[in-house]
Amino acid sequence: MSAFMTRLFQLVMRLVFWLFAAIALTSLLAVAVVLVVLSLLRALVTGKRPTGPMVFGRFQQFSGKSMWPGAKPPPAPSGPPASPLAERGRHPDERPRVASGDVVDVEVRDITPDKPKP
């Protein structure tokens, strides 16, 4: 009869363990769903993109392309990288042409004093 009691105790303990594991998993899933919904509502109200997918997108954009499934290898460069100041026939004081949609934060130019310092 003790072997029967041992097996019954083991069965009850397994059921209790699986019940606690199911409750823990369900509660974590519920918390994750609530956080995603709150994040999306916040994004709709403020007009800003959610940071989680944005961070992952940046990581995917700047990481090695070969590590993502189905990614195509980057195209080989056709020549040396061109500097905007290395354009032929352009005067150094002329402003560089900027493609539409590009943002130029600061333009560099030399400032020479009009009067020499005393």
Q: Can you give a write-up of this model?
A:
The chain is mainly alpha-helical and 118 residues long. The protein has a domain at 1-59. Helix content is 48%, strand content 0%. The chain contains two helices and no strands. The protein has helices at residues 2-46, 51-62. The N and C termini lie far apart (110 Å).
Helix content: 40-55%
- Whole-number mean pLDDT: 76
Structural classification:
mainly alpha
Inertia-based shape: elongated
The span between the termini is 110 Å
Low-confidence stretches: none
In DSSP terms, counting alpha (H) and pi (I) runs of 4 or more, how many helices? Answer: 2
Report the biggest beta sheet as strand number plus sense, adding barrel if it closes: none
**Total number of beta strands:** 0
Write out key terms for the chains shown:
118 residues, mainly alpha
Summarize the structure.
This protein has 118 residues and is mainly α.
SSE topology sketch:
Layout: H1 2-46, H2 51-62
